[in-house]
Design goal:
Length: about 230
Amino acid sequence: MNYFGDDSSATADIPWLTFDNLAIWDKVLHLGRPIQWSRGTVIRRPGDPARQMFLICTGLIKVCAISRCGLQRTLWLMGPGSLLGEAALFGHKPYQHEILALQESRAYEFSGPEFTQEILTHHPDLSHQLLLNLATKSYISSSGVESSTFLTGSQRVAKLLNGLDVLHKNTEIKISHALMAEILGMHRVTVSNAIRLFKKVGFLDETPQGIRVIDSFGLTNFVESPSSAR
């Protein structure tokens, strides 16, 4: 299910934000500065000041929380059309999380005044996009709390795989067990055991190209079945 309208590829089941209507930003790109990040670039660290926000045009950006002892939890994976840095900018707070480019990525950087005084004032459709971006993150956060409270580890893996299958339009899902565990806040072994079970019962297949969901209906039933929660 798409909770956010036809211009969003995000669902509340997965923390992966992409928006299909990137072209609506073309009219304001002259106000921004094009920027490119190579794979592995640390874009922001906790404590960095927030003076601008970014429109992601290509690539994939990871936003993660890091504990004092070095544990990580991925909060968002952000693709084309998504906005980065709006919470820190409008909240007048420094960045709280580490932001990393997982792929070579391009973006446009807008200063705070450019965004608030020019874009939001004169382009209400882009104000809607900002609100949509924030609403998507809110839904994803609340869904994550609900899942971690009421679902088992295997059910949460199944729910994530179903959401990724919808996002990737039934093609191979190129994601590692380690990244899935980081997204879900689980041990990698727990994720691998769940995937092994789903392969055994015929819900999915795994190849060097990625994970392919074969039986999304079976995964959905597994998530919704009370017996799976025991």
